[in-house]
Sequence to fold (115 residues):
Amino acid sequence: MHELSIMGNILDIVLEYANKNNAKTIKSINLKIGELSDVIPDWAQMYFDMLSKDTIAENAILHIDKIPVMLHCNDCSHEFKVQKEDIKFFCEKCESASIELLSGRELAVESIEID
Fold:
């Protein structure tokens, strides 16, 4: 259900940008969302549709680019992609626990299409 508050924040961001650029409508919104954010695209669109009713963003389509979880080993410099369900916080190559998250937590408006 956290999609509701996230979509509310995204709506605020795109409406502010659109208003600054004298937009009449917002046609689409391109989002980058990391796998670890647990945002479900169908729910995101549903909540966005509900929140954007009677605004210039009504009927805007969300395009969601899911960003995979990437980790980096600080000991052997190995970078590797993991599935959210399979995350183990050690390097798959050298088994070091000294790893850092490179991607997977993103939540950003990449661009919007306006008229």
Summary: The domain at 2-114 is CATH 3.30.2320.80 (hypothetical protein PF0899 fold).
